[in-house]
Nucleoside phosphatase family-domain-containing protein
Amino acid sequence: MGKWHYGVVLDAGSSVGIEIVISKPTSNLVQGTRVHVYRWLDNAVARKEHGNHNLQSLPEIKTKSSWVKKIRPGVSTFADRPEEIGPEHLAELLEFARDIVPEDAIKETPIFLLATAGMRLVEDVKRKLLLDRICSYTRENFDFSLPDCNVHIQVIPGVTEGLYGWIATNYLLGTFNSPDEHDHGKGHHTYGFLDMGGASSQIAFAPNATESEKHANDLTLLRLRNIDGSTQEHRVFVTSWLEFGVREARRRYLDALKSALGSVDVKEFPDPCLPAGLRTTLDSKPLDSETEPYLLGTGKFDECLRGTYPLLDKDAPCEDQPCLLHGIHVPAIDFDVNHFVGISEYWHTTHEVFEMSHTDKAYDLNTYQHRVEEFCSQDWDSIEQGISEHRWGKKLDRELAYEVCFKASWIINVLHDGIGVPRVGLEPTPSTGVNGTKEVLEHGQIKGFLDPFQAVNKIDSTEVSWTLGKIVLYAASQVPVETEKALPVGFGSNVAGVPSDFQYPSAELLPNPQPFHEETWQDTLFDGASSRRIPGFILFVFIIALVSFFLCGRGRRLRMYHSISNLFKCGRGRHVALRKRKASGAVKPSFFGQHSPSYERILEEGVQDIELGASDSSRSSYDPVSDTDATPFLPPKRASSWGQNSPARPKLDHDNSSSATIGLGITAGPGISAIDRAGLVVRTEGRDHLIPLALGPTTNGRRSRAPSPFRSHSHKSPNATPLIHD
């Protein structure tokens, strides 16, 4: 890596769709895409340039206006056609970023796509498919660092978006690096952050000491690292209100307006939030047909303010006092030390329309409300004429003029009646003959933004956006640690150390990171972590067996079939014979004890082997069980392992006390030779470790069968060590 590190972040939001780090939507709400690229010095170079001064500061982030590109529409518009998002949307953005980042730095440059409120409103399945496609397309066509899509490409909650915005605001204002220069009293030196987009609204601030102690469990722990390796921690309250952005608020307002009239036959809906005489469709679009229902503007801004107030939902139940909007808990705001900076719609609606024709006044809330009333009370024909003459600047077009009165009323209600910003203006400032927006920004910087609320777009020539906060956090995490005990950079619950829900800025920073790879069929079958491993392996073996079966030839297939068939039939015959023997008393449960099932199976195997070694002439003389069903299914004869001259089958005798028996109730019939007895003993004693040590009182501690003539006399009985030699 060279002198500079680079970073690319994509914001898939409601108003602008995708951005690559830092910007926010324009004044209208047409979804779009922006790409921003950032860079910062390598930490070793930064330390060298700083010398012994200002080492306790965060990495310095750089960007240029030429490193920004915007396209339309937004990412969420591809929810029903995810296969098109790559070539039709991402390609232009990522190629733009690739052209900016030096070729030798591309592989080390992280890329993030962080979706916000607009993508949160997309249903889960479609959202997942879309994000997966974004990941695969980026990996297949670009070499940016993307180690884990679950970390680098995701939909972030509103609280994360708000926290990133708080980081960006305080970073640009210098409170992290120079806290002494921003002393607000009571030991407080950071600024609050307000953001309003199309679908959601966020607030983030550090409460005063009293509220921080009282609501410690509601705060988020944020940890950053300076270029000298030291850390700084902040505890911030963050919350988000989904559907409290200007677009979603407008939708809820129109739903309430239509419900209030309550008739399906109503064609005209009076709307005090539209300029007088303006007619639009029910979704505030140009009216194409006179037969469809329409909104008719009345231009009564006071009524518009009253009509939007219920949307704050101030009466919602508050389970955890205090609450601001929609019953959501927020610690009490101390406006003596909590000074808020508002971005996005707080800036666009207040300045891009109502400052262009006023060059002699600084902005304040009271002045702003008067300007809104002046604009919205005009009839539509006058406003349309002013738009054509660029009376309010080139940014105000017809579509924005449709919405601006509603937006202004909503923002005023949110600020004053919702959040509680005092209804006071800035101190009087002398007229300089320059643009009021520029004047108030310079005035705010001199004062340190110490007013309760200040809307901004740029600070120190850098646009304020929550996306900048993501890069600040990532760059801080890249600073090498001085000791192994250094705590990581990131954020989580307000507890000491590293909380269980701690979020790291990048995948490679995770404890014991695992390299990301696509799951292959080998992983599915043989990886123990896969939930499909066992059924997949069974299916794999079945397929191999089936293929082998059809390739082995017709003759072999028939033999295999008959062998399997005989196996099942023999098993059934044994089961029937065993039941009959038990019923007749051939097997004495008291003799075998608790382990009788195991030994009965051994007996059955011994008898079966004896039958296989018997001659045909002896078959008629042996029928103790009369199991005729089992006889035809015996497998072909094979040579006996006990000898070659077995003239007859042995008989089963239920009297084990006879000295003429071999043992286990097997009587030596006529013609049974000594070697046959020996063979039986070898066969049965091979598993006699399964017999209990004490055979019962009838055996006097001795076995009921003769020892094998093939065993050495010095060999100890298996009874001495029943399991050791198994």
